[in-house]
Amino acid sequence: MRLRYPFRFQQIGDTWLGTAVGQNAHLFNGVLQLNEVGHFIVSNLPDPESPEIPNTPDDSLIASLTDQLTKEYAVDSATAHSAILNVLDYLREEGVLD
User: Fold this and answer.
1) Vertex 20, ends 1 and 59: CA angle to 5°?
2) What's the CA gap between 7 and 16, in Å, rounded?
3) How many CB atoms lie within 10 A of CB 28?
4) In 28-94, which ranges are continuous DSSP H helix?
5) pLDDT band for position 76 (cuts 50, 70, 90)
6) Is the pLDDT of residue 54 over 90?
7) In the chain, where are the structural domains located?
8) How far is CA 68 from the centre of its chain?
9) Across the strands, what pairs with 18?
10) Total-model pTM
11) Mean pLDDT lowest for which of 3-12, 34-43, 51-60, 82-91?
């Protein structure tokens, strides 16, 4: 699991706005709107231009993100896990997640 496109983010108030950049940016005609935690999660997803690691289950990535989020924001694992799943669902709905 990784982003389909590289994104450039800009913070406006409490919202992070992300626009696709790079060679295939024209394929995503929208803007991601994330809060601080959502931006942290997206920023820690594998780079879209990095080689994908075969046979790496999504559960492994989610566990790693949960660990990072609990350390960064001092929240419990259940809260971090729920936030990650919500952000990943949003990214899937927007069509930017492979």
Assistant:
1) 15
2) 11
3) 19
4) 36-43, 58-73, 77-94
5) very high
6) no
7) 7-48+55-94
8) 13
9) 9, 32
10) 0.88
11) 51-60
